[in-house]
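Quick one, tokens below:
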């Protein structure tokens, strides 16, 4: 699986202060790699710029728009980006490590091999995003919209999907570790050969159990589902 390089060289590094769209556009000219540290871009429209391999570290991106941007292999480290928009953006191999992306929009974004680590994306909208080989670890995705997302063969470590819309998602052969599907919408999902023993299945009624056909669950999880029928497992 491709991963962003641990050490990168940048053509220019800027720290602190406010920048305008024109400043960002000038910096991006000629495919330059730029690192921004602690820069404020709140509410700025940066749509359709080429920001491939850029690094945003501890930046404030609240309400910023990256719609249609080229952001392949970009890094967002510990950024505040609530309500930001990445609609239709190229986010292949992007790394989001830490930070807050609550209610962000990733509708129609290309996110193959992207990595979300130690971050918050509650209420984020991933409708129609291309999520092939996306990696999630220690991510809060409660109330997120992720219909038809593919998590096939993924290892989901400490991922909170509680109350999320996961309609028609592909979880075949996925492994859940210390994660939650509590009250999630799971209509038309596929779980064949998935390992759900590390998932919180609370709040799911017995009618939802059929959606787990072919998956592995623990005795305690099975007992919890059966208990909803008023039966006891001896």
């Amino acid at each position: 699986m491709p991963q962003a390089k641990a050490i990168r060289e940048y053509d220019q590094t800027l720290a602190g202060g406010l920048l305008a769209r024109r400043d960002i556009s000038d910096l991006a000219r000629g495919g330059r790699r730029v690192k921004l540290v602690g820069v404020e871009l709140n509410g700025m429209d940066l749509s359709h710029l080429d920001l491939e391999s850029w690094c945003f570290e501890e930046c404030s991106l609240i309400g910023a728009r990256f719609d249609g941007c080229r952001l392949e292999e970009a890094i967002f480290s510990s950024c505040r980006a609530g309500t930001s928009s990445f609609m239709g953006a190229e986010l292949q191999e992007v790394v989001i490590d830490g930070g807050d992306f609550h209610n962000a929009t990733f509708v129609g974004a290309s996110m193959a091999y992207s990595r979300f680590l130690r971050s918050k994306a509650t209420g984020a909208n991933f409708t129609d995003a291309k999520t092939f080989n996306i990696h999630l670890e220690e991510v809060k995705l409660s109330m997120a919209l992720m219909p038809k997302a593919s998590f096939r063969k993924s290892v989901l470590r400490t991922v909170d999907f509680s109350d999320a819309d996961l309609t028609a998602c592909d979880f075949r052969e996925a492994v859940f570790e210390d994660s939650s599907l509590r009250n999630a919408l799971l209509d038309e999902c596929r779980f064949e050969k998935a390992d759900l023993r590390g998932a919180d299945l609370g709040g799911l009624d017995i009618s939802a159990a059929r959606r787990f056909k072919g998956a592995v669950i623990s005795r305690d999880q099975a007992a919890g589902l059966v208990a909803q029928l008023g039966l006891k497992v001896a």
